Structure formats: C-alpha cells, structure tokens
Amino acid sequence: MNHVVVGIGNEFRRDDGVGPAVVARLRGQDLPGVRIADCDGETGRLLELWRDADVVIVVDAVRVEHPWPGRIHRRSLRHPAVAGRPASSHGSDLGAAVELARTLGLLPRLLLLYAVEVADTSFGLGLSAPVAAAADRLAAEVAAVLRDRDPSRIDGTTRENV
Fold this sequence. Notes:
Elements: E1 3-8, H1 18-27, E2 34-39, H2 43-50, E3 55-63, E4 72-76, E5 85-86, H3 94-104, E6 110-117, H4 129-148, E7 158-160
Parallel strand pairs: 1-2, 1-3, 3-6
Antiparallel strand pairs: 3-5, 4-6, 4-7
GO molecular function, one term: aspartic-type endopeptidase activity
Keywords: Aspartyl protease, Hydrolase, Protease
C-alpha cells in the first residue's frame, strides 16, 4: 500500500506554514513506505504527488470567521471540506484538485484532510504557539496512523479543541 503525506502551505507566512511544519516533523521518523512532501497547493503538483497512491493525507491551514488557532479539523473524502477558506498565500483550492482528480480517475482510495485553524498569516517565519502545539500533536497522530497502516480509524469528521 502506497501512502503519501502532503503538507500544503507557505512557511514564510507564519501560521500558513503549518502543513510544511507537520511534514518536517514526520521526516525525522521511521515511516517506511511513506512518501512525505511539501506543496504550495497548486492543483497539478497535488495530482502528481497523489499519482498511484492508495492513501493520501493532506495537512493544510484554514482560516475561518471566528478562528480558534490550533483547532484541528479532520475530514475524509466522503465528507465536505472544512467550512472556511484556504489560508495559503497562493489561494490554493484543495476542492478543485479533488474534483479534477475525480474527473481524471486519479483519486486515491482514501484521502484524509487535516485542516488547522490559523489566525496569523502575515509575512514572517514561525508558527504561533497554539498552531505550533497543534503541529506537534498532529505529527504524532499522523505518524501513529501510518505505523498502524490503518488510516480508516480516523476516517470521518471530527474537531479537536485545544
């Protein structure tokens, strides 16, 4: 089974860098058979990363109307996207990538999205304290799921308050 973890975001836009921060934490762990990648969220690059994958886990920042920075949303492909807009400075649209993959027959067997609520996407380096704490928890959870080889245990819609 081929697994891919993709961290979407821009580490030069503070909390928007949560996706790359999570995958950076995963790179130091023993996760055989797992491909780990950063991406700016551009549709073509996402589809290339998903190619031939059975399970794809995507980590991205999300801005919502009344944010609780560090709150983690989990969604599977069978559930609608997080109510909010992507925090990426590139205006990436994960929904468009999913729809194009569906049209082209390139969807993985399972696509999981972890979206972390953020507040500060101004220019600069470093995550805010609550988003950094969420990145630590999320990296540990994703690593555990990948070691179990059972992403279905988190396949669903949940929200974690910190």
